[in-house]
Design brief:
This protein has 174 residues and is mainly α. It has five helices and no strands.
Amino acid sequence: MNLLPEAFAAIRDFFEAGGNVLYGILFVTALMWTFILERLWFFSVVLPRRVEQVRLDWDGRSDTSSWYARKIRAELISGIRLECRRYVAPVKTMMVVLPLLGLLGTVTGMISVFDAMALTGTGNARLMAAGVSKATIPTMAGLVAALSGLYFATWLDKKASREAAGLADVLVSR
């Protein structure tokens, strides 16, 4: 009852049925999720420490109300805003690219169908079915991969905005 070889065989069969475009979809999906996990780590572990450090630096200043101090406050908030938004745009971009890669798989699969029809005529259903499989599997994989990142892309964008606004409330002038 060794399930690991069976699982690898099923994955191999899936990639063979879907064509080479699935490798591109896999790569972009892995990269997208790497960025998402990095952002989750940043917001849960790194950002609270960074905000506390900035707050302590601001509270340690003797002057927090002059024009110069307001510009320093704006720079501190802007720095945190930039740190919060890091990798959010690439995640959104990859989320848009994934269905396009699925569409590329559809086109390459349909080319296989037309090749089979040109070589054997319309009578060989087995060859045409392999091409249709190469057309539909990448489409489905691209859409599923993009949908897997949709919630987190939106959440990361809103979280970045909330954290930057929250820092503005923390750094008050005395």
